[in-house]
Amino acid sequence: MITFDEALALLESVVRTLGAEAVPLAGAAGRVLAARITARSDSPRVPVAAMDGYAVLDASTRPGESLMVIGEARAGAAFSGLLGAGEAVRIFTGAALPIGADRCIMQEYAQREGDGVRFAEGYGPGWHVRTAASDFAAGDVLLEAGARLGARAMVAAAAADLAQVTVIRRPQVAIIATGDELAVPGAAYLHSGRVPESVSFGVAAMAEQAGARIVRQAIGGDCLPDLEKLAGAALAEADLVIVTGGASVGEHDLAKPMFECHGLDLVFSKVAIKPGKPVWLGLAQGKWVLGLPGNPTSAMVTARLFLTPLLGALQGQSIRDVLRWRRLPLAAPLPANGGRESFVRAAWENEGLVPLTNQDSGAQGPLARADWLIRRAPDAPALAAGASVSALAFEQGG
Predict the structure, then answer these.
(1) Phi, psi of 214, deg, nearest 5
(2) Same domain membership, residue 281 and residue 144
(3) Which residue windows are coiled coil (predicted)?
(4) Does residue 387 come out as left (phi exceeding 0), alpha (psi in the -120 to 50 range) or beta?
C-alpha cells in the first residue's frame, strides 16, 4: 500500500485539466475560470458620492453659511451643469460628483431652506467621495485562472463588465453502486435482505458541489457481464466513473473486474488510511475511474479525500485549492491512533472539535453530524482537550 500523500501526488501528476468553454455570466456560478478576468474599465469610472448629502466645493463652504442648491444628482442621472463657489448640488450615494465639486457633506449636517442649504459644525473630516479607479482600474486582474466562481467571485466577475467568461468544462460524472443487497431508497423495506442504496446520493451531492454534473446514477448487482455492460455505458458518457463497493478481494468484489475488459490501467489500488483502505484510481478507455469502498462512512471520507481533488484537478485546481487543512483545537480528548493514518470524524462544539463516539466505517447516522475530519498520523499519541489538530472541513468550502 502507498501512503495518503503518495496517492495524492500520483493523482496530481497524472490528471489533466479538461478543455475550456465560454459561458454566459449568468450561468457561470460554481464554475472554475480557465482564463483570468480583467476589468474592462475603471471602477468607479468618475468620482462618486459615498453618502447621501450635498456636493460642494470645499474651499467656498463654511459652517452656517448658506449655499444655493442648483440641482440634483442621482446614480445613473448625473448633474449636467458646472458647480461654482457658493453653490451645492443635492446628491445621492453612487451619483457622479458634479464638475467643480470636490466634497460630499452628509445630509445629517444639512438644513434645507428653500433653494438654499446650510451645514452645521462638525461635518468633517470625511469628504465622502470615492475617487475614480479607487476600487480597481481598467486592466486590473480581478480573478485569476483557477478561481471558482462562488458568490463573492461572481460579484467581481460581473463588476469587470463582461457578458461571458471562459471556464473549464464541467466534469461529467457517472456513479455506479454495486451489490445484490442494494435497493432504491423507498423500496428496500419491501424486500428481505435489501438495504437502501445511500452512498451514491452523498457522493453525487459532493461531486456537484465540486462542480461536476451527474450524467448517470445506477445500481448494479453482483453479475460481472451485467456490470461490464454498465461500465461500458458509463465510460461512453462520462469523464469520470465512480464505482462504490466491491473493492475487496472476494469473489463478489467486482469493481475492478468490471472495468478490466475496458482496458483498466490502475494508478493506485490501495491506500494506507483508515477508513477507506480499498480506495483505488485508474483509467479505462481514456476516462477516469475512481473506486470507493461500499461502507457509507468509508465512501464519504475517501470521496472527500480523493474525489474532490480529482474533480479539482480536472478543472485546473491544485490539491491545495481543494484540501484546505486547518489547525483547530480539540474540545474533547482524542485517543491514541493505530498503525494506519486515520481520519477521525468530528463535530464542532463548544469552540472546538469533538470526535464522534461512533467511528464505525458503516455508520450512516453520525455522518450528518460530522463537520470535520481530523488527520492523525500512524501511531499518534492520545491528545487532551485543548490540543491543536490538523482538520479538514467535511464539505468543500466549509
Answers:
(1) -85, 120
(2) no
(3) none
(4) beta
Is residue 398 in some structural domain? no
CATH code of the domain covering residue 142: 3.90.105.10
Long-range contacts of 280-287 (CB under 8 A, 24+ apart): 280/247, 280/255, 280/256, 281/7, 281/10, 281/11, 281/306, 281/310, 282/256, 284/231, 284/235, 284/241, 284/259, 285/235, 287/235, 287/238, 287/239, 287/240, 287/241
Average of pLDDT values for 323-338? 97
Place of cell 468550502: 397
Residues 277 and 332 in one domain: no
User: Does the predicted model carry a pTM greater than 0.90?
Assistant: no
Report the half-sphere exposure of 65 (CA within 13 A, side-chain side): 12
Claim to verify: residue 246 and residue 147 sit in the same structural domain: no
Q: Are 383 and 195 in contact, with CB atoms under 8 Å apart?
A: no
φ, ψ (nearest 5 deg) of residue 228: -60, -40
Q: Cα separation of 271 and 5, whole Å?
A: 9
Structural domain count, the chain: 4
Cell 451514491, residue located: 200
> Which position has the higher pLDDT, 192 or 5?
5
The string of pLDDT tens digits covering residues 194-209 is 999 999 999 999 999 9
- Please give the single-letter amino acid code of residue 175: I
Kindly state whether residues 66 and 148 are assigned to the same domain.
Answer: no
Residue 110 placed within a domain: yes
Question: What is the largest distance, in Å, between two alpha-carbon atoms of the chain?
Answer: 94
Same-domain status, 148 and 281? no
Helix (H) / strand (E) element for 336: namely: none
**Which residue segment(s) compose the domain that 343 sits in?**
326-393
Instruction: Compute the distance between CA of residue 58 and CA of residue 50 in angstroms, rounded to an integer.
Output: 16
Find cell 444655493 and name the residue. 68
Cβ 382 vs Cβ 333: under 8 Å: yes
- Sheet containing 213-220: which strands, arranged edge to edge? 213-220, 172-178, 240-244, 287-292, 280-284, 265-268
